[in-house]
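Sat 14:20. Reprocessing the chain from the morning session after the first attempt stalled halfway. Input below, unchanged.
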Amino acid sequence: MASLTFNNVTKVYPGNIEVIHGISMDVKDGEFVVIVGPSGCGKSTLMRMVAGLESITGGTIDIDGKVVNNLEPAERDIAMVFQNYALYPHMSVYDNMAYGLKIRKHSKAEIRERVNVAAQILELSHLLDRRPRQLSGGQRQRVAMGRAIVREPKVFLFDEPLSNLDAKLRVQMRLEIQRLHQRLKTTSLYVTHDQVEAMTLAQRMIVMNKGIAEQIGTPMEVFEKPASTFVASFIGSPPMNLVPVRIDNQGVVYNDREMALHLPARLVPAALYGKKLILGLRPEHAALHTDGIPVEIEMIEILGSEQLIHGRNGDHTVVVRTPTELTRDNPLHVGETIQVGLNEDYRLHWFDAETTKRIDV
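Finished this time. Tokens:
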């Protein structure tokens, strides 16, 4: 195992196109860190720089205290699991898992022992003679993980490994990856665009936006105190409601349609008086038919014991998460206008309207 350190890492493509803007972070020995963000944010580029598949323009990447900027991929002691599995179709499961060890001239006995141990961990022992085409998607992904395990690397790199699997299998594989990390305790870097994967797998996460690390923290730190409106809108399913507001000198909150939001005075700190802000409220902290703002219902998602009410207030979308039983006797209808306010467990989030950064008051 080993630590992994990013020291002001940048990546610039020809034409002065900067895609990674000074990432700095210490990944602890044995830690599982997830890089999450939308397509094009630079998360896979950052991982490929760790792997040695992309050159580093500025800064340094250290693995186990050693700068690896100029080392070839084979010299970095890392193992990578790809989105498309990258298995050799003409080889058996055993040979796919053993191939990396063979080219490194390990003995047949050691190869056999490592492959058998990895196959047992991943429940692949009965599949070692099969070809990849004879396996399901989940089994192929486990073979790709097994090929990485037998290397016994200092760092595991996972590049969106579950993207090609169906929803049920993704949940199963997430559990398997968690168990695998708990057993091996190898330093791991995992890239995904799926915030649910990030929240459930990460010990810490890097939320990236346009090559910038918007926030680094534990899943609960990022969820409960998002550092910007981008993080607030990306982490959480459904995302946080964000409404531009202004606060007059008496502490009254108005949205951009000049509707007063009657919030308790203790929720509007004097430090915010006279400012233009963005007010954030999680869907689970909103309530129906309470003193608030009018919302026209556009869609209702019934999810069993709970429901998501999607509506609109002017140009802004509003989502409310409530128990389904609350509207069983008086069902809501698309096109209906309702009042949406705060429930008893509410938590408000304030962001600067210009910088979009969080304001803690």
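The mean pLDDT is 90.
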